[in-house]
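Tutorial handout. Part one gives the primary structure; part two gives the three-dimensional structure as tokens.
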Amino acid sequence: MTAPTEKQLCNWLVSHDSNLARFRIPIPLDVVAHETGADPVEIERYLEGGNAPCFHVWEHEHAGKVSRSKPYCLRMSGPTTVGIDWEDSVVGAAESELQRKGFETCRELGSEADMGHLERTCSLKGLFPGTNQRDLWAIKRSGSEIEAWIIEAKGKEAGGFEHYCFAEAMGQLFEVSTDVLTALLGQKRRAGHGLCWRIANTLARAWKEQGLTCTISLAVLVPNWRPDVVWEGGRVCGIPDFYYSRPLAPRRATFCVRDDLRPRLRWFKYERAFRAGRSSRPRTVFDRSFEPGAGLRFRILTTEHSAENGEFKLAGFA
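Part two.
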């Protein structure tokens, strides 16, 4: 039997069938409670309790064809807010957390005018989101020290496409060759444009010429909530882990943490391709012992439940 809180939340998600954009910004629990009639404490307890997630299957258009194939789940996306595992909502959760950490933030930047402003001012103030630019920016300045983040995000997609999505984000961050991406994805792909890498190098040079010390982090941001629901084989399936578990596990174990490039016979094709992409970048970018102020680095950020207390956290800063 469905618990009252679960039923109220599921019905509330259905009521947003034509209003997905509302989830671009985290929604306060008290607002959800008012609109659903559920108790805010019970809502939080349910969403943090490891229950089967509430979800709704949204419409999706691809190549002119509309289908219902996006089972986005309701999640805690902050200490007192909710969101879903749609890309824009994941970005909203990360943005709110970065703001709580004292960063200026802005979405969808990357034009020449944006970069000129950043080179001159070292600040996001006065900039406004564009269209189809870099997903999320964050900057914090303390005297002559600057910490900046350039983030490419991926929400949940169709089941089985998690490696594709992760590779696509890597190609946006770094200049990954066409051979590497083709091997990784199993189909012919153009080389990753690596705009984030070029932008980060340009900003680092400009800021250092002004006598400033900077740390610029290039990051992939993905949802890491579990259990999860995916679309697979023409139906919705529950899974105990999170959507990006397969591509993230080897990335965290070897791609980002250990300096281990020795060949291994049992690597899957996509793992060999990732390692080829890693070896094309300076090793310091992937060094977990990176010292602040040393230049450029790569990180994986995840929105997830804290293992300690079940609360929301944005992991991957260390």
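Part three, for discussion. Residues 141 and 147 are 6 Å apart (CA to CA). The two ends are 42 Å apart (CA to CA).
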